[in-house]
Every structure is written in structure tokens, then in C-alpha cells.
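Recap from last week: sequence in, structure out.
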Amino acid sequence: MKSIAIENIRVVGVLVGKERRAVVTVEGHGKKTFLLNEGMLIGVDKAILKAILPGGIVLVEKIKNVYDDDEYIETIIPLSLN
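Predicted C-alpha cells:
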């Protein structure tokens, strides 16, 4: 999942239990399906899959701001209803 853009990820299913997992599809290079676990690194910027919730997933990316300090940005991808 290193070459995948976060913008192309759609969450199509969530498995909640002892070990949470998310089922995602990725558009772009054909439509591929992946099973993700919390803690995985995703995408070119190596966003961490921080949480899998019943309504979607939370990704956290580490970036450098204009002051050259580390900053963390959260991206929430909701469960797709289509």
C-alpha cells in the first residue's frame, strides 16, 4: 500500500471485534480490495492507520509546517454507503 494516494481509498466495510479490520477499495490502477489493520502505514506519505471505528477509519500523517516543526494531520475516511 506504499504507492496508493489516500484520496483514492474508499472504506467499504469494517470488522469490529477483538482485532479491528477495515475493508477498503482503491481506485486508480484498476479497482483493488485490501484488508487493513490498525497501525499499518498507508500511502506515499506513510500515514498511520490510527483507528478503525464503526463509521470509518482515522489516518494520521506527520508533516513539516512552515516553521520546520513536526505537525500531525488527521484524515477521517467515512464508511462508504454505495
